[in-house]
Amino acid sequence: MRAERNFVSRGPLWGACALALCLWANVSVAAQPTTFAVLQQPALPTAKAQRAVLLGLARAGERLVAVGERGIVLLSDDAGATWRQAKVPVSVSLTAVQFVDAEQGWAVGHLGVVLHTQDGGETWQKQLDGERAIALAAQVAGRDAGRPGGAANVAQARQMLDDGPDKPFLDLYFSDRLNGYVVGAYNQIYRTNDGGRNWQPWMGHVDNPQGLNLYGIRAVGNALLLVGERGLLLRSTDAGQSFQALKSPYEGSFFGLLGIRDGGLVAYGLRGNAWWSDDRGDSWRRLETAIESTLSTALQLRDGSLLLASQGGELLFSHDQGRSFDRRQSRSGGTVAAVQQAVDGSLASVGLSGVAADQDPLASGKP
Questions:
Q1: pTM, whole model, 2 decimals?
Q2: Signal peptide location in the record (predicted)?
Q3: What is the reported pLDDT for 25?
């Protein structure tokens, strides 16, 4: 087995999440259990679910949906004031969640898990896991072995077989109910065009010869972009058929992307680094955040302003495309892994200490 790379970060949020197999935890996967009963074991109901480590947060219509350790999924129908636990068929840690409307959503996590819901997060079904993902990669490699680029697919499939099905998915992007991607460690990327009933390994379509971790995927205009470790930036302008490397503005890891409604793009990562592009990644302008904490999430608010949040709990609001920031501290006082604006305009966030809701109009960026 190859030497394992840490999933980069070095921040308090991800380091403290090691027990939950948090997505950038500074832990070698070689030290993790080699049995995968968690893929068949439903998430256990717990009265402490709201205080669990939570890593992802999304809007499903007027509902908020949070995901995190041990397969915990929480639902709130009152802007984050109260939460209840949903039924989930696995107890593996979940890292990200997205809804395309009030009913249809997906969540991804460790051991290559992809979950799907058709009822706004009340119940979930497993669509993919690491064992199935490896089998699919092997099928594609065998089919394409004699074609141009086939040798690379064979090498990737062999490496996946050697390593085992323990690699996490770290982000996802669906454009609608049918078309989507999931991405993760070691260049893992899978594509679906039927809502996840079938998944296609897409690693051979990505210009990432070092197999760097893919941390984020988003669309801006008619382009689709990927970001990852060591400044990795990739872009597709042919509806995802191929992803080509872009020149990166810095060498540190990017942990996420945000597409702005007017066509702008924000990439963010280590030590407060954030960058803005108006040309789909051809050129970048550095955003002066004036913080040293790793940026963990970004959101465009209803009024068009930008919000960046950090592992240190800092909330950075900008009304001028990131040229200046109003810095505040999360009311929870803890780390922020993901943030959403609720239907009433307030902010809800999740992190190391679970869920938090901030009803303060000023703190939530409302005018």
A1: 0.87
A2: 1-30
A3: 36
